[in-house]
Design goal:
Layout lengths: L7 E7 L3 E8 L7 E9 L5 H16 L6 E8 L1 H7 L6 E6 L11 H5 L4 E4 L15 H13 L2 E6 L7 H14 L3 E3 L9 H31 L6 E4 L5 E3 H6 L7 H14 L4 E6 L4 E7 L2 E2 L7 E2 L2 E2 L8 E3 L5 E5 L8 E7 L1 E2 H8 L1 H12 L10 E4 L12 H9 L5 E2 H4 L3 H12 L3 E5 L2 H7 L8 H12 L13 H27 L6 H13 L15 E4 L3 H4 L4 H4 L3 E2 L7 H7 L3 E13 L2 E6 L2 E5 L2 H23 L5 E13 L2 E15 L6
Length: 673
């Protein structure tokens, strides 16, 4: 049987820099067969452009009829990158039953930033009993908020035990504004109000971004005559339908990395490995154990925020091919620093905008002394104007000055205050900074050639002119600084991989000591106490630039590094070989002796017998899991139910405290017939 006689699957990965596509068939051996693969630049102003570039290329290469594709599956790092870079829409947070002091917990105040928050009386206790709800303050604020935010996040006290007050607030906001609303009970059944509020806030910020991605993909597929279901990879590596992902975009954080783990296992067959996936913006490091990725029981941590999203136990570092390259301040012999912010590489800007960029770089090189803003440009991202709602007067004025052609920062900015204003526009996702990156360094030394090497060399020359603490230039030639940047990136990659290994071994609390020891080991530092470190398993290096940046990795980590043949499209491949997996949960508590209260979904019911309450809980979660599995995109779900009891024994008598019932439904996604 030929590969083309099997169902064809299209995998897409929309990353911060590139959009990848892969056409895969289940035939051709136990691992199936990659029929074609391609890359196209991610076009943030119109995501459909980058998607169409990659998908059209694989269709053309494989001479495939689009109608023959039976499933489309997509992973993305856009949500992860947005949280790492502090980007997202402006949203309003509605806190019901909480006080302002609760904002100080779990990083909620930091995450909120300058976005508005409304406090309302109400909420419930641990058994679901209601306090008095008053939404008058929220209703009064809605006319102004409706004009200045892109969505709302609603979190009520103990909403996981009774969501009634969140539902009332959600319905009021939708009725008065028509804007998207995320309620916290829809995302997590776990206790911990401020962290649940944080997760809900981040979800609301991401809705417009993921909505644009899904809409762009669906529009493109329709234009090409691809009538297959569209799936999205979640942060735990499972697949869900596009409609499911649109409502819960926070669950797509670490989507790309999770897909890459599925792809890494599929390509190498390794059961135990460290997986390091380097992209344009981030490096994601995780562990394969027994053929499955480790999941984070506490919830995914991205951009410094601990969420309640169940996801791969992935450590995400702001280190990639497009990381900002800067110099350590005030040191006699300053170190090269990388990230965490992503810049548009100068080589890419030069390729797209040509003379507008190179003429400015040449002007700066003619100056007798290096300037603080040399080699830096600002350009609009091209997002819709409605996402610029709520700008301050200085922000709006600067935003108007910046256009679709890169503008040199030394011409744009007149003060430090304006620089801070520009950084706020970048954080809102409205403006990109273009500057010198490791991708440029790779172009300078001839190890990368997909963009404009001449522009990259001008940027390297400007960076090499910078001065150390002694007033000397930091490098003699553009090639010298480029090599130094690339060596730094490989070294930092080794440190992050080893740091992850220490954390997975339970040594996260000793991170400072571990970091110092890792540095000594990586440097092969001579000393009375010599220290070496080695991984017990190989590294699987993923990402288009992995062959370049990980070539020098083995001696630094004390084990081998395997870079698979299709490493450049591991995410896209992982997107099509995964399974749908969703869960539902319920809790039974005992508010008073002889009364058993069941909270499941959006309902609360009371029983007088424990057995009947547990039976109802198991029936509820089975039905909920089956419904969610269908919504998530599978018609063949297998459901497993687990019940955990909390009891105590008093004078030999068993005393029921609480029961936690979880149903997990999993199955292959439905495909077009």
């Amino acid at each position: 049987m030929t590969a083309k006689s099997h169902p064809l699957f299209l995998g897409i990965d929309t990353g911060g820099t590139y959009t990848d596509a892969v056409l895969w068939s289940e035939g051709g051996g136990p691992k199936g067969k990659v029929l074609a693969k391609a890359k196209s630049l991610t076009t943030r102003h119109d995501l459909a452009v980058g998607i169409s570039g990659a998908v059209d290329a694989v269709l053309q290469e494989s001479a495939t009829d689009p109608a023959a594709i039976k499933l489309v599956s997509m992973s993305t790092t856009l949500a992860t990158n947005a949280l790492v870079e502090g980007q997202g829409g402006r949203v309003a947070l509605v806190m019901i039953g909480f006080s302002e002091a609760d904002l100080a917990r779990d990083g909620l105040k930091t995450a909120l930033g300058t976005d508005p928050v409304v406090f309302c009386p109400g909420g419930h206790d641990v058994h679901g009993n209601a306090a008095k709800l008053d939404l008058s303050g929220l209703e009064a604020a809605l006319p102004e908020l409706g004009r200045s935010v892109s969505g709302f996040a609603v979190c009520a006290y103990f909403a996981t035990r009774n969501p009634a007050h969140e539902l009332a607030a959600r319905d009021l906001i939708r009725d008065k504004t028509g804007l998207p609303v995320t309620a916290s009970h829809e995302l997590s059944a776990k206790l911990g109000g401020p962290r649940r509020a944080l997760t809900t806030l981040l979800n609301a910020r991401l809705i417009s971004m993921i909505d644009r991605l899904v809409a762009a993909t669906e529009g493109f597929l329709a234009q090409r005559g691809i009538a297959a279901p569209l799936m999205v990879v979640r942060g735990d590596g499972a697949l869900v339908s596009a409609a499911f992902a649109r409502q819960r975009p926070i669950e797509t954080i670490l989507s790309g990395p999770a897909a890459s783990l599925v792809g890494a296992r599929h390509m190498t067959g390794l059961d135990d490995a460290m997986v390091s996936d380097i992209g344009g913006t981030t490096t994601d490091v995780a562990v394969l154990d027994g053929g499955r990725p480790r999941l984070d029981p506490e919830g995914a941590t991205v951009g410094g925020f601990r969420t309640m999203v169940e996801a791969v136990a992935m450590r995400t570092f702001g280190l990639g091919g497009d990381s900002e390259v800067t110099l350590e301040d005030g040191a006699l012999d300053p170190k090269i620093l990388l990230g965490p912010r992503r810049l548009v590489p100068l080589a890419l800007s030069g390729m797209v905008h040509g003379e507008a960029v190179t003429s400015e770089l040449e002007r700066q090189l003619r100056a007798p002394n290096p300037g603080r803003m040399d080699g830096r440009f600002a350009v609009r991202t091209g997002v819709p104007d409605r996402l610029a709602a709520g700008l301050t007067a200085p922000e709006a004025k600067l935003y108007e000055t910046i256009g679709s052609v890169p503008l040199a920062l030394d011409r744009l900015l007149a003060s430090n205050a304006q620089n801070a204003t520009l950084n706020r526009l970048v954080a809102r996702g409205l403006v990109h900074i273009s500057g010198f990156t490791p991708s440029d360094a790779a172009h300078v030394v001839g190890k990368q050639a997909n963009w404009d090497a001449a522009t990259a060399r001008l940027g390297a020359e400007l960076f090499a002119r910078r001065r150390d603490g002694r007033g000397q230039t930091i490098a003699a030639t553009p090639e010298a600084i480029a090599e130094r940047v690339l060596v730094t990136l490989t070294r930092w990659s080794a440190e992050y991989i080893l740091e992850t290994a220490f954390a997975e071994d339970g040594l996260d609390g000793a991170a400072t000591v571990a970091h110092a020891l890792v540095q000594r080991a990586v440097d092969a530092h001579p000393g009375i106490a010599r220290f070496t470190v080695a991984l017990d398993r190989p590294v699987i290096g993923l990402g288009a630039s992995a062959p370049l940046h990980y070539a020098g990795l083995p001696p630094l980590v004390g084990n081998g590094c395997i870079v698979p043949e299709d490493t450049d499209v591991a995410n896209a491949l992982g997107a099509v070989v995964g399974q749908v997996r969703v869960s539902a949960e319920a809790r039974v508590s005992q508010p008073k002796e002889g009364l058993f209260r069941l909270a499941s979904g959006q309902t609360v019911r009371d029983f007088t017998e424990e057995d009947k309450a547990i039976a109802a809980a198991e029936a509820d979660v089975r039905a909920l899991a089956a419904e969610r599995a269908k919504d998530a995109g599978t018609d063949s779900a297998e459901i497993e139910i687990a019940t955990e009891f909390k009891v105590s024994t008093i004078e030999g008598q068993r005393m029921f405290i609480e029961a936690h019932v979880v149903a997990v439904a999993s199955g292959r996604p439905r495909i077009a017939v």
